[in-house]
Amino acid sequence: GQIVYSIAEETERGASVGNIAKDLGIDAATLSARKFRMITGSSKQYFNINASTGALSVNEPIDREQLCELKSVCLLNYELVLENPLELYRMEFKVLDINDNSPSFPLSEYHINIPEFLSPGARFTLPNAQDLDEGANSVQNYTLSPDEHFYLEMQIRGDGSKYPELVLKKALDREQQATHRLVLTAKDGGKPPKSGDVPVIVTVLDTNDNAPEFEHSVYRASILENSPTGTLVIQVHATDLDEGPNGEVRYSFSNTTSADLQRMFSIHPHTGEVTVNGVLAVQRPLLEMLIEARDNGAFGMSSTAKLLVEITDVNNHGPEITITSLSSPIPEDAVPGTVIALLSILDKDPGENGKVTCQISENLPFQLKPSLQNYYSLVTSELLDRELISEYNITITAMDLGSPPLTTQKTVWVQISDVNDNPPVFSADAFDVFVEENNPLGAFLYQVSASDPDMGENGRVSYMLRNSTVAGSALTSFLSMNLANGSIYAKRAFDFEQLRSFHFQVEAKDNGSPALSAAITVNVYISDQNDNAPAILYPTSQNGSVAVEVVPRLADEDYLVTKVVADDEDNAQNAWLSYHLTHSSDSTLFQLSPHTGELRTTRSMRSTDFLKHKVVVVVRDHGDPPLSSTVTVGILLADTLPQALPDFDDSGEPPPLLNATNIYLIVSLACVSFIFVVFIFFLAIVRL
């Protein structure tokens, strides 16, 4: 928005101008909270705003003539910037002129030489008064002190400007009065009016009755503002009808031409060539000078012509980029269209040379949007991600439309602040942990690790075990976890034979608000140790007695006496069993298969073999170190199962040589042999 105020110059400090909050429809109570500020290109702060009421008052009295010089309209431009949300208002102050300056003349007195022989009606140019006020407060009329020989008349130049001329009313007589003292008074149109006086001293001469005359009353020329010294602007020419020295013309700038212009330009006294003499450091596009042509008579006569020089602008000012407001850092979750900065871009050149285009790189998530006149807003055009890019150096390029164009660049550093938009991420989809049974209490098992690309507290990860049960017991009775680094420790010793594996979940949570989390499954595999000796399932003994196996008295070779059956609760090689015969009462009679545990006879039984035998079998696993168990087996040679088993605690005794059984066998064998011999003998007799 824009609002215009009018204020008279020299208004005293503290005077009220208006109420900016009421005029713009802003709640005055929010001015301080919204960090209001007034921005102006002026070197002084002429106005104040009351932060509580929004009242606009004068801070510094304004001197219109000092501020705007000869401009017909004097304007002060301010911008009011408010934040949260960002708003910009343009304020324009029109400084009204008051009649605070009196007309003045460049010189303290003026001298005019007039030949005595001039006829009435001769005219002489009088100096123009200068009044810094404008309009009606500037010079309006001139008056001349009463004199019988002169009167005042106003003349109009070709451009419409007025100037006073002294007109001879009555012929002069030098012998009667050689000098006439007049007073020229300039009055302005103020209320009350102000005036300024200057003495005009007229000296009556006897010679040179023709003044030089210019070909034109107004000369016009144009020149580039960067023209070097010595550049020809224009050549003026005046003629004098007198002859000899009285007709020789010399050119110079009039005393009413400002000293600054006389330093910028020079005029050749003989040729009338006006050339550039210095840098054309002016802000006005049209310069006005008065050129005087004076003859070389004993009492030189002069005339003046106006020279109007138009300064043609060249593109010698690059754009100026000013950062009026900047918000940095900005959160990475800022929505597209968020205003980051407000830029003011100006070019002091007029016309096309002062028109500016502005742009930034296309590969950035930002864009420039035109705001008020000469203002641009830098806004986000895409979503931001601090984890990808944490800061941006945005180069703003401003280029005018001059030929050749001038370019200015300014870099804006924008930081991106973090928001908690990333949950922790584990380094794997699942973790497998291998632990040996019989571990010590508090043993370190594993360390899970999760990363969070956010910053600070948003990226600080803590770990915890999710509630679950293992083998009917709470997980926390088995494990503990370091919340800070994710280390997992055992709270009890594991037993492979009771629990071979289990799984649980670990949750990683960041410290953001709200907190984000992720979970992962940890599989625990318990590896076996050789902590169990083989258990012999068969043959078994009761109350410490020896297990007894009955074998037929005349059993054949490879007869299966018994099979030793054993089991080992361990796993893998710790449960691989082998069978060994460590003791036998007759080492030639029995053999043991190391893999199956089968105990067999190595030969047929003999009548001379002991009736009782005892063997000791060792069952050994393949652990490191190996564990073993033994079993003692008593072997009884009998055809029938006896009612009472013999005692196998001793190693067995050899049977007596002549017992009832042996005698019976011997008698039976003898009888059979005798019958066989008789039968053979009988057959032989029969054949013979």
Automatic annotation (TrEMBL):
It is found in: Cell membrane. Residues 6-105, 106-214, 215-321, 322-426, 427-536, 561-648 form the Cadherin domain. Keywords: Calcium, Cell adhesion, Cell membrane, Glycoprotein, Membrane, Repeat, Signal, Transmembrane, Transmembrane helix. One of its GO terms (cellular component) is plasma membrane. GO terms for biological process: homophilic cell adhesion via plasma membrane adhesion molecules. Pfam families: Cadherin, Cadherin_2. Potential calcium-dependent cell-adhesion protein. May be involved in the establishment and maintenance of specific neuronal connections in the brain. InterPro entries: Cadherin-like_dom, Cadherin-like_sf, Cadherin_CS, Cadherin_N, Protocadherin/Cadherin-CA. It is a single-pass type I membrane protein. This is PCDC1 protein. GO terms for molecular function: calcium ion binding. The chain crosses the membrane at residues 663-686.
